[in-house]
Amino acid sequence: MRWNESFSVGVAEIDEQHKRLVEMLGNLLEEMKRGRGKDVMANTINDMFNYAKMHFATEEKYMALYKYPESALHRREHEKFVETAKSFYEGYMNGSLSAIDLMNFLKNWLVEHILGSDKKLGKFVSGASLCKR
Questions:
Q1: At 39, is the pLDDT very low, low, confident or very high (cuts 50, 70, 90)?
Q2: Model pTM?
Q3: CA torsion, points 82, 8, 29, 104, in degrees to nearest 10?
Q4: Residue 122 near residue 14, CB atoms below 8 Å
Q5: CATH (residue range 12-132)
């Protein structure tokens, strides 16, 4: 999977962070093709946690700054991601999680959250920032 402009939410800081997620997916896929998916899973899961902390804080900063009306729902989606990521880590540690499972989770997150909820947030922020000028 590679970054393309259809993933853009129209807020540069958020888009740059989303590019990192796409890069993580691409790296994991390449390692899986080389038969080394399991070797990189721990690093990928660690990256997911770091991504979540930094990225969600950024989005929530914009939600507060522009008084995003759907912020509570959006935050719940972030919390669900963190819970699921922890579950994936536990699955990896006990041997019940495959690289394919992790890849599918990340890909689904990208498609469902970024292209759905984050696009709505980006549109709201872009419109609100125009009104502030």
A1: low
A2: 0.85
A3: 50
A4: yes
A5: 1.20.120.50
